Amino acid sequence: MYISDIMVKMIHRSNGNCHDINHFLKVYAYARTIAEREGISFQEQMTVEIAAILHDIACPLCREKYGNTNGKYQEAEGIILAEEFLKDFTLPTQMAERVVFLVGHHHTPQAVCGIDYQILLEADYLVNADESHYSKEAIRHTMETMFRTTTGRALLESVYLSHQT
């Protein structure tokens, strides 16, 4: 199993939606970077990388079914879609279950359990802060209340807070 195989399948599944593709590629890049710099285990690294690629798998369905991509809809629908998506790959059962769990909880920062979960939240926020044009005040608040990794905090500071705009 290669991460690139999962990525290519997810790109194909995105049906040319450049926003969705670029979003998960950016989240993947941040998640990989944070995970590597934080020195997590190989299994946690692979888990968070796969979860980063799949975390918004439900967005197209949510747009069609609900008219929006509300986080709670994404989490509920994402569990089913991620389980189905991963059947084409030979992941260890525990890893596949954890990826599905992360996809099903990536909008629930109050329930963080595990470094992989923390990294996924931070990586997604790093991308969402730009895409959604969060204010510096909101970013500072989130850094203080949600960010826990040294690398995630440093990236957030460097990208959004250390320069005058």
How would you sum up this structure, described in words?
- The chain is 72% helix and 0% strand.
- The protein is globular and about 45 Å long.
- It has helices at 3-13, 18-38, 42-54, 59-66, 71-86, 93-103, 115-131, 136-145, 150-161.
Give the SSE map:
Blueprint: H1 3-13, H2 18-38, H3 42-54, H4 59-66, H5 71-86, H6 93-103, H7 115-131, H8 136-145, H9 150-161
Sum this structure up briefly.
The chain has 165 residues and is mostly helical. The protein contains 9 helices and no strands.
Low-confidence stretches: none
| Mean pLDDT over the full residue set | 95
The main sheet comes to: none
As for the CATH topology, it is Hypothetical protein af1432
- CATH H-tier superfamily: Hypothetical protein af1432
- Distinct helical segment count: 9
Q: Supply Rg.
A: 15 Å
Provide the descriptors you would attach to this structure in a database record:
mainly alpha, Hypothetical protein af1432, 9 helices, globular, 165 residues
